[in-house]
Amino acid sequence: MQRPTLALNVVMLGPPGAGKGTQAERFARTHGLPKISTGDILREAVVAGTPMGQAATATMDAGELVGDEVMIEIVGERLTRPDTRPGFVLDGFPRTVAQATALDGIMDGRGALVVIDIVVPEEALLRRLAARRICGSCGVNAPVEWIAACGTCGGALVVRTDDGNGIVRERLRVYHRQTRPIVEFYSGRPTFRTIDGNQPPDVVTASMDGAIREVSVGPGEVRA
Ligand SMILES: [Zn+2]
To answer: What is the maximal distance between C-alpha atoms in the chain?
Structure first.
């Protein structure tokens, strides 16, 4: 496979349960790009106890979301590292219009930003998230074929606590409220693509690949 001659700068959007993380991971791996997840960076900073990590911990301990300023600083710093020169796959950023605007500033002169929005109907997301069940006795993850009992030990299946239906609906509601302005921010751009995430993962991977290839600008071309 030929290396891309132009940076592949990809932003992934998509609700919880849409398979965004998996797709970001796959795309990054097959194209030799770093996958930049703000969740991972924050967790690492917290563990390392850096000043940024301490600030983030204090914010999260207070039950608040880490603010734009800190997130922009984290991502801005990460994007100065040389491994991001050929491009990157961003997962979990931007989450606000302020972050998206800052990202445009960071990207100045680095090529187009390809924005992929993975869309899955809410009912399908609820089914997927609610299907994340475990065995109450042995703790094994239950595949969808198991209706009520564990196929290993016969124990009763329980829904993982963080996937209780009310919590899932609330997570989706919060996601859509936060993300709609970002989708609006990007949707008019020629490098914005919506991907149908309600398909088998391999099909989603293929459509994403195709979409990104289609919108990537060749060298020498000028984008208005
Ligand atoms: Zn079991």
So the answer is: 63
pLDDT in tens, 101-152: 999 999 988 888 999 999 998 888 887 776 677 888 888 777 767 777 888 8
Check: CB of residue 74 under 8 Å from CB of residue 42: yes
Write out the catalytic residue numbers.
20, 95, 132, 160, 171
- Indicate the pairing of strand 133-135 with strand 141-142: antiparallel
CA 128 to centroid of ligand 1, rounded, Å: 20
Query: How far does the centroid of ligand 1 lie from the alpha carbon of residue 25, in Å?
Result: 30
Q: Of how many residues is the chain composed?
A: 224
**What's the 132 CA to ligand 1 centre distance in angstroms?**
14
Residues 79-101 pLDDT 10s: 999 999 999 999 989 989 999 99
β-partners of residue 149 are 156
Residues around the ion ligand 1 (C-beta < 5 A):
135, 137-138, 150, 152-153, 155
What are 7's two structure tokens? 């940076």
pTM recorded for the entire structure: 0.76
